[in-house]
Fold each of these.
Amino acid sequence: MSLYASAIKKPVTTALIFVAVVIMGLFSLTRLSVDLLPEIESNMILVMTAYPGASAADIETNLSKPLENVLNSVSDLKNITSQSKENISIVTLEFEYGTDIDVATNDVRDKLDMVTSALPDNAENPIIFKFGTDDIPILILSVTADESMDALYKILDDKVANPLARIKGVGAVSISGAPIREIQVYCDPYKLEAYGQSVESISSVIAQENRNTPGGTIDIGSNTYSLRVQGEFTDASQISNLVIGNQNGKPVYLRDVARVTDTVEERMQEAYNNGKQGGMIIIQKQSGANSVNISKLVKDKLPELQADLPSDVKLGIIIDTSTNISNTIDSLVETIGVTFLIVMLVVFLFLGRWRATFIIILTIPISLIAAFAYLMASGNTLNIISLSSLSIAIGMVVDDAIVVLENVTTHIERGSRPKQAAVHATNEVAISVIASTLTMLAVFLPLTMVTGMAGILFKQLGWIVSIIMIVSTLAALTLIPMLCSQMLRLNLKRGKLYVIFFTPIEKALNKLDDLYALLLDWAVRHRKTIMTGAALIFAGSMLLLPAVKTEFFPTQDNARISVSVELPVGIRQDITRDLAFKINKEFTEKYPEIEVISFSEGQANTDNTFAQLSANGTHIIEFNISLYSIGVRKEKSGSDRGLIEICESIRLDLAAYAEIKKFEVMAGGGASMGSETTVDIEIYGYDFAETDKVAAEIAGRMKNASVVSQVNISREDYIPEYQIDFDREKLALNGLNVTTASMYLRNRINGSLASQYREDGNEYDIRVRYAPEFRQSIEDLENIIMYNNSGQGVRIRDVGTVVEQMTPPTIERKNRERVITVSAVVAQDAVLSDVVTVANQEMKSIDMPSGLSWSIGGTYEDQQDTFRDLGILMVLIIILVFIVMAAQFESLVDPFVIMFTIPFGITGVILGLSITQTPLGVMALIGLIMLMGIVVKNGIVIIDYMILCRERGQSIITAAVTAGRSRLRPVLMTTLTTVLGMLPLALGTGEGAEMWRSMGMTVAWGLSVSTLITLVLIPVVYCIFAANGVKRRRRKFARLYLPKNFNH
Amino acid sequence: MKAVFISFNQAYYDMILAIMDRNNIRGFTYWEQVQGRGSKNGEPHYGSHAWPTLNSSILAIIESRQVDNFLDLLKKLDKQTEALGLRAFVWSVEQNI
């Protein structure tokens, strides 16, 4: 017994099976977590190696180069870039998407083992750091404090960071901006010299005094005691009373030559929130944990933590990524609701019967909810991609149900009992329902196989739509006939309300049928005119192609802006701080949209890995601005300016400050996707002067282009620095070498880490160095005394000279070559392709010195890669769709005729994109791919019926007209459900709507235009091919049966 | 004894069986899927792409006195929904075992 016959025979079983599916789906829904995007496994590995005190050039030659050479042989590597800056080398390995990052990490570790021994002695061990979307902070808290400022680090560490880190799913919690306690031993060089002491000797005395030593065990009487010397300092003031030596038989105390201050580290990054000093707590999640949940847990915990803090310490929120996520998801859920209503309305208008509408609409929740079970089983989340897949599917799931229900109705009207009608009617259409689902699967299943970035994003879309289509087909073949057999009745009597409402609609539809039949009748008799017209329309739309602009992902208004302001290098921190306050004040007054504004300035500690990743220094200010989210911006601030608009305005403001050397305003706050688009021009070459010149030239030209709002050069300015040129001969004469000499210098200026002071389980550095007043001039440096092995003191000026030099602070390399990147931010109304065009033109016209090369990278490179992948996919999909159709019709000609719909789908897309000025991005391309499956469905419906009419013995032209007329309504109905189903996506204005707008636009335009054209064109093309077939058969017939010498 | 051959749209099966039961007609032979077309009008029943419907047939050997009533009832059934199609033919049975 067939599937549908048994379903109709056993209505209870059938109904309950679907109820079970719905319950499972709903159960999964309660367990699903919410996220913005599907989990993107990181494809980056950072190798960070600190070499305190080394300059960028040293780091490049001694660390970055050897590391790159070794790491370059790791498999699946896409790009290797490195940044060599003062104190640290960061080598970034970018792998192809989809590479198993754990395997890659192991490879990297093995390679590092090989090279570690060859690295400089003072360089710390390379740290491997996987950086993915998981590492983007999910929450940044602000801390403001007054009196507690000095102890802020410890307070935050104990009372905020540790409790927060214990929350399930929270990864790293780092504190920045709060000064860290340090015990400084400030020496007076003159006194040191007088007492014959040095920084090194003091340092070693402190280290030796500050020690706990176990002395073994001792048996006394019948007991065993352990023996211990507790030498560690219990109070910082004990240090100043240490005896560091003897002079003339009297002890020399540390306080004689130095002062000990229990204070904070000297150079630090300062953070201000809404104008008040404090710190920032950066919270990252564990890999795979859910940001929305964690963010909620953290926020729930905050009042409790706040109660425990000193009264002047206040916690606040600077950035909360979960607001954007929940708002985006909410607006998508709303879109799905609207789509559902629209589809319901269309079905009702066309069918005019409540029961039939109910039966059809029932497939929507059932198949959609089934998709949640898949999400749960595969460990995915509710995100933009999975939810917009649902929205896309709504319009398509009803198609199968409509076909089945229509046929059952026909049978009932002919006189069958509903039960019999349901069985036989379903039997008749089962094959074509399955075939049309297969064409959809031919489109969506290949999506699950895309590689690269697009693959990660669209795997879910492919699976979800495929699963929904399969479930809806199963429902159409079992549940729908079952419900029809139970609920549909032959009811020729129409209610009064029905007559009032539906008579005009019925009349209009009939009129439409007649008009269409007339048009078709004319068209099939003027085949040449129609074909020429169609060709012209297609060619015309192709002419519009240059007007279509391309982008990667649209910029999303996530209400976050990050601004980085750079003053001339080497400027003192106080001046930077003053300017930061001024800008802070101006922004707060000028932009009521700002909810929180925080900034940090100053040199970050080498221990703070998070801060080290971004540029920092005494001349750099980093602003983090959080606007009111787009949904409430209007009511909270009385202004509804968009993110990009505000950014443009901020750029103008900053340009007015003469003291600012360089600034960068980033919309989206550096989020991975949906942030502002940039075009990166990479200029490769070893020589700094040459590459700088080219970069400056191109940056200047790009800045003048109207499509560019901001140009940044990746290479920063030359830092003025003092270098000490030692004379090796003189050093050797004095029994010294460069290493020992430089160590002496370093210990006096940077300080020597003597030991660690322990208090309450925390360790604080004890640093011995010259007091600040003795390291303020070049003379101070020249007067530094170094001691050789025989104890003789030599001053630096006797063995070397102090010279001023300029060195680049960060040396960037990509694929083992020095690179300088000029990145141009795309202006408000322009898109990626505009800027790429300008960049290409300018680069061609520029006078490039030999030995230099260039390429365009950044977003453009990603876009090209993704477009290429999707392009190949599209060809594959067209072939698959053809195969499925050829199998269904058992013919090669008929699917070929149907294929004529595809070019007009593209025509519609081009038309839509150029009229609405929407750029073609990845989302639009996905829309285009989906369109391939959707547009051919119309063709299938028409051609199928034409073949049927021909088989029933009609002539070609009559068949074409009859079929067209009879299939007009089903085609219009399925098209309308899909197009109108896409409208809420295409016209959405909620938070995050930018992401899927272009996809909705593409499908809606492509499908509408292609339907209008194919409704006329497909019958015509069919007539041409069918007529040729008939002529061929006649000729064959003539050859076979007429005598050879027959003459007309 | 008469042989009644009924050829009808599949959808009639349940109803014809009900009529036979009411009239104490027990024995019959039933072909679930047969194809055919009417001599004058009506759609062919081929189970094909163009003509997807199918017929069934019943051959029942019944007592002569039952024939008229049975045919009347079948005719009534046919008249209710002519579009489906139902035909019955009767001939004599000469011998049986």
Amino acid sequence: MKKEIGQEYTVALLAIGLGLLAGAVLMLVTGNNPLLGFFYLFSGGLMNITRIGNTLATATPLIFTGLSVAFAFRTGLFNIGAAGQMLIGGLCATALGLTLPWPKPLLLPVIVLAAALGGALWGLVPGWLKAKFNVHEVVCTIMMNWIAYWSVYYIVPAYFKGAYLETESRRIPEAASLKVGWLTRLFKGSYINLGFFIAIATVLIIAYILDRTTLGYELKAVGYNRDAAEYAGIQANRNIILSMMIAGACAGLGGAAFYVGYASNMQIGVLPSQGFDGIAVALLGANSPWGVFMAAIFFGLLHSGKGFMNAMTKVPPEIADSIIATIIYFAATSVLMERLRQRLQKRRQARDKTDLPLDPEAKLQEKVGGVG
Amino acid sequence: MEYVVEMLKIRKEFPGVVANDDITLQLKPGEIHALLGENGAGKSTLMSILFGLYPPDQGTIKVRGQEVKITDPNVANDLGIGMVHQHFKLVHNFTVTENIMLGMEMTKGLVLDHKAAAERIRQLSQRYGLNVDPEAKIEDISVGMQQRVEILKMLYRDAEVLIFDEPTSVLTPQEIQDLMVIMRNLANEGKSIILITHKLKEIKAIADRCTVIRRGRVVGTVDVASTSEEELARMMVGREVSFTAEKTERIPGDVVLKVENLYAYDNRKVMALRGFSLEVRSGEIVGLAGVDGNGQAELVEVITGMRKAESGRVLLKGVDITNCSIRDRIRMGIAHIPADRHKHGLILDYTLQENMILKVYDQAPFAEKGLLNREAIAEYAARLMAEFDVRSGQGATALARSLSGGNQQKAIVGREIDLNPELLLAVQPTRGLDVGAIEYIHRRILEQRDKGKAVLLVSLELDEILNLADRIAVIHNGELVGVVDAKEANEHEIGLMMAGGQRGATA
């Protein structure tokens, strides 16, 4: 197992390297100095404590959505609904923050819990439909995204309308914000908030569930081989629902971190892009909790540095987005290439060992197109 | 021309392993030449080279005295070399003629000349005694007939050399008899045949000469008539082999498994079990014989809880378990060695030790309060591996995928037997394994019987059933044809029952 993960990190690093190289080419083509561009891109995210704080704050929702996608994926499910789960999580958090006049130490745990539950509910529906009626979770989670989108569209103006704008909620009170004074002071006025620490805790919890618990054993068994899991008496359907709920809860927490941490009100008519970026984060992080954590920090760095790069040079901020896109592209293809390489190797080994009669046949089919 | 095909000093290396080392195979015109070897001996590699799927690293191939380079299967076809695959490659809703024409259609102007093709097929069929109806649809004819269509496909393409890859594995004993006659006809008409097999009986029955290979090398080429089965086996395995498992007399005890009037659908929503009933007692092995696809798979799935019964009951030690969950049945004492070890038996991306606890992962000492106990798991896996002779290069932390088929199967057998079950369902427990592993697994299954467990053995290999079972139940088309005592059973009678004939009706 260890070796394989190591290999996947190489894949990730390779993808990042190639992505940066492609970015450099783009900068050259647009008549800019890539070294200077990268210098400002990275110093924009790292050059002082405030910017480091902002980088971490930008990364926080990505950690959550990345975990959400990665966790579902370990159970063989493709959660495209992190955006909707995040929205609902954020909505629950905002609604409670604007409603309950409680002191901060009491209010925050309730808000965070509500966000997780809201997200879990948004994961439960596709999970249940998949288990019960075999509705494909991709279709279902995408639709849940839009249900969340329009729910926010209705609920925010109807019940939590902002003071000046129809299109956003009121600002949450200080007591409901994940930003805390000491942390803001420590990072000299950055956006960083408690969400980052909740994210670290969640990474730890998810890693623990996957590696140490019977639940994780069951979930992964279903993900790797549903038939064998059922043969062993594991209830695949229950695990599918549970997995989607946990994935939804992760994304819901991301909603809290974003809407009552990074921001302090909710805008309507926006599906948070972090939900979809979570897929890329999970991919780059090879679906392992700590891999997701690091990939999210890296994407956070690019996102928070691109403005500075744009201000200091003539490199447009879209270059940073292009770099991210290229990295995703390379990560996806190199994972495929890696898989292909492994499969070929495996085949060769299998053939060496057992003389596998199926194998030449498979090859025959490739060559003569099915009918010999 | 002494030889029609000569493969001289063929060497083929795959990274890490020499699959074929200095192999020479010479095929005379009109002979049936058996190629005998265990799984992994290099038979398939050698034939793949002849059929143009791999290039040899060294050595030459001569066809009718001419040196040739066979770069792909089309070249092989042009040279008159045809292969009858183990798994047929036929379009099910096409007729026999359409299937045979496919790829080399006769045309009259722009339209297919279906009539001429059918006529040619009829002639070929008559000449070689194949008895195939050119207008029948593939889905309507039996497996044995489908195989003949495959043979016709080769003849239609004027193949002079026919390679049969394990041709009897899908046939009933009677169909095997018929195939032997057909092969003999083909040889008499001047066709040359290479028969890939590991069944010694068939070689004795049909082949003229036999080349035995072991671990990629030729052990020898012998005249079949003057060589005994025992000698062939020794050449193949490299040591003495016992053919029959040692079995002691044992009086069966109480009924452990009772299946009553079971009905169940298969995956295509066709009734696969039609009123099937059976009893298995403690201390006996009941062998379930039948041609593949007659309801065996569904029966096993209904007993284990993986498939719902439409009606009827399953009783374990008198308790009705028809509606119990899979897990409950495991806890009540049903162990199951599944037919497909990759689909059901193992999670290939889990390590060996994780696979060993597949059915007990949530029980002490492997788990407490939902947390896995790694040490206990590692210890348990190590013990099972030692006890059941599971060999893995990297020990218990190797991925299950990396083990050889035999070791994967031993791991499953070990895991299931260690559940200490009341009932052991062994489905195709030795499929695709070599003689050594087969002997071992047979011994462990017999051991379970001697300990007083009930064993239901489902196998497509009649020899395996005759060898192990105390009683033999025959299933055909989802119904129980009959149950015979293994001591009184003979292959012919069971073969007729497998084809659906009632006991005694045709004998």
